[in-house]
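Exercise 7. Given the components listed, write out the predicted structure of the assembled complex. Treat all entries as one system.
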Amino acid sequence: MARGLHAKPETTPERAAYYEDIAPHSMTPLWEVLHTMLRPEPVSAAVPHLWHYDALRPQVLESGNLITAEEAERRVLILENPGLKGKSCVSDALFAGLQLIMPGETAPCHRHSPAALRFIVEGSGAYTAINGEKAYMEPGDLILTPSGVWHDHGNDGDEPVVWLDGLDIPLVSFLSPVFLELYGEGKSFPADRQSGDNMARYGANMVPMGETFATGNSPVFHYPYDKTRAALLEMHRSGETDPCHGIKMEYIIPTTGGPVMPTLSTFMQFLPKGFTTETYQSTAAWIYAVVEGEGRTMVGDETLEWGPRDIFVVPAWLPHHHEASADSFAFSFSDRGLHQKLGLYRERRGNQTN
Amino acid sequence: MARGLHAKPETTPERAAYYEDIAPHSMTPLWEVLHTMLRPEPVSAAVPHLWHYDALRPQVLESGNLITAEEAERRVLILENPGLKGKSCVSDALFAGLQLIMPGETAPCHRHSPAALRFIVEGSGAYTAINGEKAYMEPGDLILTPSGVWHDHGNDGDEPVVWLDGLDIPLVSFLSPVFLELYGEGKSFPADRQSGDNMARYGANMVPMGETFATGNSPVFHYPYDKTRAALLEMHRSGETDPCHGIKMEYIIPTTGGPVMPTLSTFMQFLPKGFTTETYQSTAAWIYAVVEGEGRTMVGDETLEWGPRDIFVVPAWLPHHHEASADSFAFSFSDRGLHQKLGLYRERRGNQTN
Amino acid sequence: MARGLHAKPETTPERAAYYEDIAPHSMTPLWEVLHTMLRPEPVSAAVPHLWHYDALRPQVLESGNLITAEEAERRVLILENPGLKGKSCVSDALFAGLQLIMPGETAPCHRHSPAALRFIVEGSGAYTAINGEKAYMEPGDLILTPSGVWHDHGNDGDEPVVWLDGLDIPLVSFLSPVFLELYGEGKSFPADRQSGDNMARYGANMVPMGETFATGNSPVFHYPYDKTRAALLEMHRSGETDPCHGIKMEYIIPTTGGPVMPTLSTFMQFLPKGFTTETYQSTAAWIYAVVEGEGRTMVGDETLEWGPRDIFVVPAWLPHHHEASADSFAFSFSDRGLHQKLGLYRERRGNQTN
Amino acid sequence: MARGLHAKPETTPERAAYYEDIAPHSMTPLWEVLHTMLRPEPVSAAVPHLWHYDALRPQVLESGNLITAEEAERRVLILENPGLKGKSCVSDALFAGLQLIMPGETAPCHRHSPAALRFIVEGSGAYTAINGEKAYMEPGDLILTPSGVWHDHGNDGDEPVVWLDGLDIPLVSFLSPVFLELYGEGKSFPADRQSGDNMARYGANMVPMGETFATGNSPVFHYPYDKTRAALLEMHRSGETDPCHGIKMEYIIPTTGGPVMPTLSTFMQFLPKGFTTETYQSTAAWIYAVVEGEGRTMVGDETLEWGPRDIFVVPAWLPHHHEASADSFAFSFSDRGLHQKLGLYRERRGNQTN
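Answer.
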């Protein structure tokens, strides 16, 4: 049987003196902390948590009265992991929030190095414009604003619109390279291309002849729910269901086949009524947003009961499985692609690790 | 001014004797042939040519009476370049033919190392099955049978179906690695997946989570014309037209962004009524199949007048341009991607080479 | 002129009440913290710092008396950034330490998901064995122990050996996927290949025919100083000197051309006597280990005077430049490649950003 | 048992009339030629052949008297495959020739789209200059002049120098994109970098920081024999010998790990005295140039007895094996990488195909 690391060695008076001696030289002994730095398996302070949308909805809408869009820049309520208080994040490396935009409001154009996704929770008529091209939102749609692209929001409709913001801000802050730039005097970016152009140009399994692509981000930035939903159901008809995931598809960059952004991977999942998945655990964290259906997810010792528009987080390396009591569709985002890119992704399916 | 290569040196009696001397040793002097092997610019024996579909159609249909599908294996009329007689090819490296399949016929399942594409010219109700998954044909559809995949054809409908076959057989024969394998006793491949599964699974800007891909060939093998046509028109609405190509899109592998097969690149082009392109020339050969519209293409000194279902070839390095007298859609395939992969593709747009 | 983000909105009593209201639901207002999360340019708590090797050497050697290799697992003194007290790191995402191994000692074999490099500071006769193949150390050598490879150390010589450890532990801890595994009962890994095999097999611009490679890590893991030094001097003879870097070369994976490990980039730099570089700043942090020569590096407002075997850190986004008062060779490692992989690397050369 | 393709159908008078009918329309029936176009396994007209250098040497040297370098542009004797008479090629897609350059001669600078390699057979003191950087030749050295780079030759020494030229001219001619450009008025390219710079800059497992690379061709263009030979012997010491190849290493592009040029793969092989390889066959053709040692190669039914400086060709898909009667080093080049790039490479080792 493999032994573990030694606990830290005894702190003799002689050693204690030595540690004080070297401290002014900005040196500390590794052997005092090694056992906390290197453990056999991942440990995260993040905890599983579920936000019931119906319970929060009144408060989300109230924020529309409490603060103007202009005052807030972005009117967002952070979904903060209870295990990571004060850190403004939903998992160690990821941020999630609910953003509200009221009819007639606009949010000024800017760009930043952190990457963002918007997953529409309720309402229609609002848009995100990416480099001036408007993506009009419907519930279940995924919209990307990758690192460094100009974007602004607006609501041309007549109802409040709420979406889930997912960002890699905690990661990019940790790494340092946070940049922010505002566009002009808070103006909108000029519109060159019509709404839907990105999907026609890059999302129909074709690309303009001779166009070349930077590989980091997707040229498609609006993935409508109706197409996504139809693809999942069509795939389900062929009957190949993953024991751990049901029917789970990843949104891809159609010019590379990879995750839509280097740090954020995105998925839609179909769990047929009555389906129970096998246990899965991975080094990545997963933030789920339920679109349709209901069921529960057992994460470690917790049971999270979910229904439409609920949001929940599965922290890194916690074994979990799902049970669907109705045909269910759930969106999720994750830092899985980041871990894979760095050679750090591991998963355990049922009892098998690789 | 840069000088050209010397012509071959004078053949003195002494040299002639030497050449005879070395011949039995399987050696010959390079300087006798160098000026034909290395020229300043490409020279091809292939010529521009157009096949008027209406003129050929009766003969194509007559082949259905003349020979059974079983006798013929594949009932195909080769479109042979008049400059390359007896070589069974439409350009130096590519093959084109018209295949006819009558109602109720099937063609046995096989696979081979040459890659093939089918572009549907007329009729519906026939299919190509790739590894057992049937792709039902409509005019304007593109269907791929890449190198090494099992495929068979059939016609479940009640009318003759004709398609254009495009293959890399001349290239693969030249290189040597031609392999052919018949499936069982001429049986069909067992069907595991439903028709349309490939598009749902890989063609909706999503892929099944965790699936990995070989990079050579497209997991999508059926590109329906209605989607292609819609994408071109949508892109046209944004008003960005290429001077040499109009609106020209390349079919891609959605998991790499590259050409659909390593040796065959495929395109659909929209030329609005009245549009005249600038002159273009490239090291690749281009085989066009008109779907809708009419116009003409000037290739070198020749004028090719085309209408629906006509097929024509533009050989390598010949300057050419198009004039559309009606809104026109034209499919084309080419060895462009092959040239690019080998660092050999060059083009000249108007007066600019790169 | 572009305006900055608004400061946080006034906290009215009404709003304060609202914030208390939503807190139990694990929600907090983004607009209270947004201005600290998104700033125009990177801000890091890390500070520039230099460790004078001659001043530290007695203490490093004393650790050999104070604690046995067995007690310590690895006898390492952490070089802790004074701006990041208690975090055991040299920059936000990187770890550096000085490791001492005494004659006759061995350290048990293990593997872990964090990646490590060793840069030899003094002494010879010690080795790191990677999957059983021993790399014998000389000052100035670089040895890699990438994520997941078995490794152990020993000192077969008769003098103490000290090396600089560089790791990505802070990053991997932040992301979660820390794994550690000890080999057998603290045994060494069985030796299959002779010392130097990795360089012969992959480092001579050749590879064994038919061998395929995972792309993440370098199959070469020992880069001897004499070859590195000779390459820099040879390149210097061609007279192409980078204004910001002098002659600076990156160690690469010879089967990809990329950084030696996904999270750690490594460099050797030659600054000729009298050379002063232009100002450079980047989103990455840089840890330098001087091998030969002397000079100074101005980082922000600080001047770091360095000589042989000194170690210093340049935190993210601080403008800095070097002055060499003698022909100087300096090794450095950085998270540059990580930033590049994520599309987050930016640099400013003189007055130009990109 | 799988059946083969039908032989061609009977040519009835009716069919003969039909064939005449369609011929003016540039159409021919595929079923008349299909069985010759698609066969179960590759068939090549090329035959195995060996050129004994000692027997040819007097003739090669005599060419120095017979024709001036200026008259010949390049004084090369083509090694023509006896199965491919009049085609100026050594295998279906490759060219080989012996080039002689006499002391004091120079050959004018040019560039062309076909790619070339030079493998030095005898003599020293000559050079190839690539973009002005001279690579001085010693026997056993490999020098590359990839597609599109300026190159010229000269002999600064006092003895004749002979090398083996390997090119992809037959392939590039077949595909069309042959381009040739002469430099100035037959002048040499200006020398910017010193001899050896390419190896220092890219061949020491390092690259200049920040330099980016086109992926098609190797930035290293001179691979000296002493390094190659040492690597093979070093690798042999670890005792891992390939049953089909002995110790066989491929020259790589150090910034990609791939073959040195897109169409030409290059190898050096060590066969210890007494070693007999297992049978191997592949879709690629192989041209061998023996450096040291002696032995024989059985190709199909032929036995080729070889010694130092002999050259022989193994055509596509012929089973072959080697027997070394002395410690032997043999260089080879091949279109293997081209086949791999196109997904067409297959090999059979002993009795196993894949």
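Discussion: DSSP finds eight helices and 25 strands in chain B. Chains B and C do not touch (no CB pair under 8 Å).
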